[in-house]
Amino acid sequence: MAATASGVFRRTAIERSDQRVSWERADQAFFASGACHVLAWTCREFYPDQEIALAALYLGDFEHPLHVYARWGTWAFDASGWNLESELLQVNSDFEGLPIRQVETISSDLREFCEAHVHRQPHQYWADPTERARAYVRRYDPPWL
Fold first, then answer.
1. Is the residue at 143 inside a domain?
2. pTM of the entire structure?
3. Domain of life here (predicted)?
4. Model pLDDT, residue 49
5. H helices of 26-144, where?
6. Residues 6+ apart with CB under 8 A from 63
7. Does residue 1 form part of some domain?
8. Helix axes 36-46, 110-117, angle to 10 degrees
9. What is the pLDDT of residues 51-67, one digit of tens each?
10. Is residue 32 part of a domain?
11. Secondary structure of residue 75 in the 3-state scheme
């Protein structure tokens, strides 16, 4: 699957206000916009023998990251599966019409990240998305295979 901008799947007002409606979206939409951080942490945990880092993508003047993904070398994993990181960054920049301000390596744990960036922790969703994220990670062969 080609890299797709996370903004393509931006949540509607009802999806932002009703966790169940947001939960019922297709997996790609759910993990592209609203649970990308959960997917990224799950990917890293899924491959403990690989050096997978986590990255936050900032565009324009946004205070909080637009998108979070896992990275391995020049590869990135998000709701589009494994793609070259450069392609993921470009499609997001093109879609938003804003330059990439920063890609930051995340060194905090998930709880700290969520608190700092106003993101939901897994227990704050309609249902915990962790198992759904594991199933999603399993769908995509990693680049090292």
1. no
2. 0.94
3. Bacteria
4. 95
5. 27-32, 36-46, 85-96, 110-117, 130-138
6. none
7. no
8. 160
9. 999 999 998 888 889 99
10. yes
11. strand
